[in-house]
Structure formats: C-alpha cells, structure tokens
Automatic annotation (TrEMBL):
Cross-referenced InterPro entries: OM_porin_bac (IPR005318), Porin_dom_sf (IPR023614)
An example Gene Ontology CC term for this record: membrane
Domain of life: Bacteria
Keyword Zinc: no
Pfam families: OprD
Keywords, alphabetical: Signal, Transport
Family: Belongs to the outer membrane porin (Opr) (TC 1.B.25) family.
Single GO molecular function: porin activity
Name this protein carries in UniProt: Outer membrane porin, bacterial
Xref: Gene3D superfamilies: Porin
Amino acid sequence: TNTYLFTEYQLANFAQTGERVWHARYDYDFASLGIPGLLFSTRYAKGDNAKVIGFNGEGREWERDLSLGYVVQNGTFKDVSLRWQNASATSNFARDTNENRVILGYTVALW
C-alpha cells in the first residue's frame, strides 16, 4: 500500500502513531566532473516516539538508502538507464532488513 508520505522510503514509511521523524537527503550529479548521466543519492531517516500495536515501549527505527544510476547519453541505447539501490533498516519493533535492487529503465513516448 502506498501512503505517499515524504517519509516513505524503500523499506519503511515511518507512519506509526505518534512517530516523530527527521530525515536528510543528498543528491549529486556527476556532470560537473565530466560524467553526464551518472547520479548518486543518499537518504537517511530516523523515527522515535512510535506507538506500535503489540509492542510494549517506545518504537524507534531508522533507514539509510543509497542509489547510484546512469542514463546513457547518446547512441543506440540513448536514454536507457541502469540504477542500483541499497537500503538498510533497523527497528526495535520489527525485523532488521537489508535490500538491493537493480533497475533497468527506458522511457517510451506514446504521443
């Protein structure tokens, strides 16, 4: 289920009752270093004060996401993208999780 929260990350959505969340994000475009199409992003979120059904105590969680992607700039495969995403999440009320994704993308104009 999508919640469309600004705190919706790859593994967690930080939407527990009463949860306080802070987060930070950093993006870098390598075009300024002469590598157009190469992009890096990292995000971190930390939540506390969560009231979780079935858990006795204050719920706390954090997640760190990394993304490294490249979009081909010209040639036969122009606009084809390849992205690696890694996420690590830790919580005192749910199982810790680590996940890797590799995403191949291509946009097709319909009209």
